[in-house]
Amino acid sequence: MDNRLIWLNGALVPLQNATVNVLSPTAQFGLNVFEGIRCYWSETDRQLYGFRLDEHYKRLLRSMKLLRLDACFTAEDLFTALQAVVKANNYQEDIAVRQTVFVDGFGSWSSKAPVHLFVAPIPKPRLLPASRKGLRACFSTWTRISDRNMSPKIKLGANYMNSRMAQLEAVENGYDTALFLNEQGKVAEGVGSCLCLICNNKLITPPGTASVLESITRDTLLVLAREVLNMEVVVRDIDRTEVYTAEEVFLCGSGVELTALVSVDGYTVGAGEIGTLTTALHDLYLSVVTGEHPQYQHWLTPVY
Ligand code: PMP
Question: 38, 71, 160, 172: most buried, per Cβ within 10 A?
Fold first, then answer.
């Protein structure tokens, strides 16, 4: 960990030298937009595959545009930086890559420059069946931020303070994690992931307009459920009580992959264990991200 290299503004620097100004807008106001990208190691192919990089970079560029930051990087620049830093660290294992565009230098929350980039990979193994654990969640007393104030579509550092309020409150009250309702009182998402329900073999998830981040994992699972598992997929508003009575409930995201919820507000979900369709979808997801599924190779970018 200590001799890990970070890509910072075109240079590969040791972690301890990858620093920002304490008075920078990123340090003081959370003025940074970022992506959490997973790359999975395939022992069969002896290759590291970046998952759906195009979608991650499109979302990062959208986040920059919405914050009126200059489009000073292309998707190609972003991939070149990721590839350089992963190669420099010679990772041959599953990793998570934090790729962050931030406003550095002296400035305020309204500063537009200088716009800098860092790319920080860390080892993060996939969630193997034996280590999967269902979580006990609650609905937060806090409401999800909305497109009327701080758009949850922007993957902005400062937005995570809404997540922080909910997560710390949940833990204080004895839960593992929190779920958010939006301003309309409908189900939004988790603190760092989207939410899916399984009811009568249907996969149901809130729409992009429900105060959620447009999740790449959620999009992937909608495709896989439909095309491979022949499940009906439904994108619609969800009421809170539907979560209590769903057969299976799980969080999804690049970081959490699929993480089952075994209870919500004390209501046991299904049989109180990780559900069979959640497990099937998770196993399928892992086969896709590691290059074992021929149909979805177009989602993978070899890093080496
Ligand atoms: N919502 C929030 C608030 C998140 O932080 C994340 C993680 N990036 C997600 C949803 C899931 O998005 P993705 O599947 O693109 O990682």
Answer: 38
